[in-house]
Description:
The chain is of the alpha+beta class and 333 residues long. It has helices spanning 37-43, 73-84, 142-154, 156-161, 217-222, 247-261, 318-328; strands at 7-11, 14-24, 53-60, 65-70, 98-103, 269-273, 279-285, 288-293, 298-302, 310-312. Helix content is 21%, strand content 19%.
Amino acid sequence: MAETDETAVAADDDALYVLTAVLLTPAQFPSVLGDDFPAACAALGLFPVADGYGLVLGQDGEGARWTVVVDDVSLVAVAIASWDCGMEYDLSPDDRSMVAALPGWPLELAVAAPGVPAPHDPSPEISDRPPLRPPDTSVWGPAQRRLGADEVALQWATWREQIKDSASVPAGGRAADAEGADGPDGPEADTLSGAEPPEGAGEDPKTVKSDSAPASPEADENRTDAGKGASEEAADGSGAVGEPSHSGIRRVLAEARAYLDSPPPLGRVRSSFAPGDARMLRADGPGWSMVAKTDDIAFVLLDDEPGEVLPVGRGPQLPGLLEALDRMAVRPH
């Protein structure tokens, strides 16, 4: 998240020193908060309006944490884009755009405003609602699974490099050890264990993790050794009848296909920019997340398989499914 200079806005008659801001829209929302846009809004007690919101996170003069919700989404988007480019931007929404001032922060922040006390929750006398707190990511679960999918999308090239040939990804197989991916039979390992993660990625490349979602001890215990459990299905990524062997992947693909007939809540399927003519596709559902490039393979993360990143080869069915999901997905403006 971007950190600003000391920028102050009014919130409950006190100055707010802005630390960062995020979008809460159908196409872009902190996925740690929920599988879709309405769920993310519900986590903050907000009504899911079509245009969404901007969330401004900061501290008041006493150091208390506040999240100011504004309906001027464009203003917040410009501020975020400026910060991402290394430019200064004075984010100062006016009173007319403010929807609510919520105590606490819904996301973990590692920064603090200078010259004020350390971040803390506001006094209960100031607000009649409990303070927002980030979802628990100390153990593997929905929040950490979604953060893991965020990391796979952000570092797609690194994860993808460990699968040398999309045609050789076995159905339901786990992403390969880089040292074993060069063999004639392609990936035959249970975990994505051989990549050198880019600077700033998780320290242990065997697990999916981000700065705000460290891998749990349970993830370490549940990982299996490289070389075990190799799939024996056809090399095109499908079994004899065109279905993956991994039951979890079969369930994810079936539920994703069901979205085409019964549209899911807004934001369950999102499409964003990717190099070339492709799109980066993100889909979530109960207990699962899928990240894919429309011209490539997909990766699946499951609540019931801690720390695992499961590749799905192109096969005969995945390309059409990804194209159909991309047509129905919400996109950033």
